[in-house]
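Tutorial handout. Part one gives the primary structure; part two gives the three-dimensional structure as tokens.
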Amino acid sequence: MNETSLKLALYTWLSGALGQSHIFTLTFNADFVTGNVINGSFDAEAIAPVSFTTDHATTLQLLANEIQKRGEIFSASVTGPRQVTCVGAANGDMITIVGPTVTGGASQAVVTPSIVQSPVAVPVIFSDQNAPRPAYPYATIRMNSIVKIGWDEIREINPQTNIATIGGQRRATISVNYFGAKPLEEISKAFNSLEKQTVQDQLAASGIAIQEKNDIQNLTAMLETVFEERSFFDFFIGLADNVQDDLGIIETVELTGQLSGGTIGDVIIGPMIIGA
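Part two.
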């Protein structure tokens, strides 16, 4: 078990699950016309040029499709006759928008970007680290008890070195706390994200399997003269833990003994030395 790698994977998951993504609209002041070509970029990543096809509505949908192909965009949907609404892929990331600009054709529509939701990043810290508490909102994570499941076994033996890998399954308890406004709503983002295939794949790449989640709890309580809004849940992860052992080698074997009850009487074996 590599504790540093496990904690980094859990930190990456929780940091991405909490907060808010950048949501914005792209509204054009006129329809697209024959000959128009639309270009633009998001976080310095250019979209493939979109040429006018069939009619305005078809071209607008093609533009949305191209925008959604960008890695920093989670979704891009046509939400009006001349409007595309985009949702950022990473919470807390303010996407830099250039354009889209329209060239060619008899007329060129002009776009007006508008923010629907500003991105919010939620700092994540380990609950047992020595540092001042950050400003609200923030979240903490901690790896608690580790329990052995079943029996360890020899996984493999290196035939060249005779080093054996011995290991088995472990179950660790992970606790998550959220401090800030709307604590139940916000921590639910992390709670629900553990069901996402992309999250499970990301954790699996670090040797972590999600096993079971416990209920979300509201731990809001009085802190001196004001209520501190806080929520909590914990969950179990499965992982493997291995150790290595030098089994050594057998240089010589000496056989000796007697077998009784044979058809030709007793059979005497040895002494016989096999090896060096």
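Part three, for discussion. Helices lie at 3-17, 56-68, 183-193, 197-204. DSSP finds four helices and 18 strands in the chain.
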